Amino acid sequence: MTFWTSRALLGALLVASLAVRARHLATPLVEEHPFRQAQTAITVWAMVDNGIRLFNYETPIFGPPWQVPFEFPIFQAAAALLVKAGAESIDAACRATNLFFFYLSAGFLYALCRRHFEEWAASACILMAYVWMPFTIFWSRTAMIDYASVTFTLAYLYYLEGWVLNRGARLYLIAATGFGFLSLLTKPTTTPIVAVAIGWAVVRRLGDDLRGASTARDRLRRVLTSGLGLGVAGLLPLMAVYAWTTFADRVKAASPATSWLVSGSLGLWTYGTWEQRTQWEAWQTVWLRMWDNFAPEYFVVFPLFGLVWAMTSGRTGRSFVLTMLLGGVLTQATFFNLYFLHTYYQMAISPTAAILVGVGLYALCVESVHNQIARWVIPLLLLRILYGQGSILAAPFGLTYEGAPAYRIGKVLQEATTPDERVIVEGRDWSADFLYYARRRGLMMRGSIADVNPAELGPWLKANQFTTVLSNLDPPPVVRFWNHNRLVAEADTFRIYKVWD
User: Fold this and answer.
1) What is the C-alpha separation between 22 and 148, in angstroms, rounded?
2) Which DSSP state fits 129?
């Protein structure tokens, strides 16, 4: 197969993978982990409604001042700009924004692979594994910020490595620093996936400094220059995320409804316990989920063979595979409870999974096959079979607004209230989907606000002018703070009450 034919086929497969994802983007955000999708989307709605603000942005689900800053809202701002540019809906804009960042991350992954693998086919196999995995097809269509953070993290590694390989290339260092800022500010739990690869690049840089110097003075100058550059690219982003976290904690601590969400209170939720890490059953849950998501059934042979190839082969790319693998393991071990509880955190390690699957695919089906046509046909057939293994794909393409309870309840709430009314939601944990589809600001009765002394909670709710209660409890406990309440509407198992004195 000629050079241009193989590249054209790769391009056609990329376009086909986009066509698979781009169907039915204007569908409700309810397929999986809807609480996180609705939290993102309601922030986009607030930006569209009140203007795009990166620092004092609103997520109106925990009462006034309507702020609960978790991440720096690059994704949300991009989606809001798309809505303002004429996108069909916020749901569609959020999905399209995620697709944009996913394919941008694919571009940086491919660029990294081309840098590390001498064989173009190895990079092509990794790229195809990345875009055709059912897991990435599913999650790249959701209203989630994770592939934005993956993009920034892979770009961080790409440009920092570029600075290491091209001594004196200041533009690489500037770009690395900028993407380091974006990576850590968007989602700091993603950045560690490249920590080992960055560490290896640093070792290589310092080794070159020591070997390349002719005198002790020159050696010292080189090491100091490298240390300064690494300090800029590493410490400045860390200082920025520390400043952002301090600012966000100050905002969250100011309200009784969000004080439980300050970073100091989320340590156990984020990291888990050492005891949890020593339990085989916990690791089994995480790893079996990975197996099912990235290499279901007999496809597990490909990442396993990719690992064997990386450990035994003397070919180029070996260190890249191993450092990315160790980075993925480090990330899971660090934020263990998040990976134990949530499927979507595995988006962060999907590039690592694609590297292992792609290398295994290359080693078994390309490097070992001498017929040029078979080298393409066999991987394509296997990728098609892998796509067919994706039971996860049964849900998102068949969603309708009429069949989504969250949308129906939200619309009933919208009809029962005016745009300026404030709504209390009970019995929905902290999912903002009802509020989002109603386009209403409100308060989720969850966390610290639910534990406030009733003698203080009642006056606080009244002072903040809440007029409506949406609840699946009968009667709703929160209505006791007002002298009067009246049932005004029902939707599925939820009831809507007006409250007043």
Assistant:
1) 18
2) H
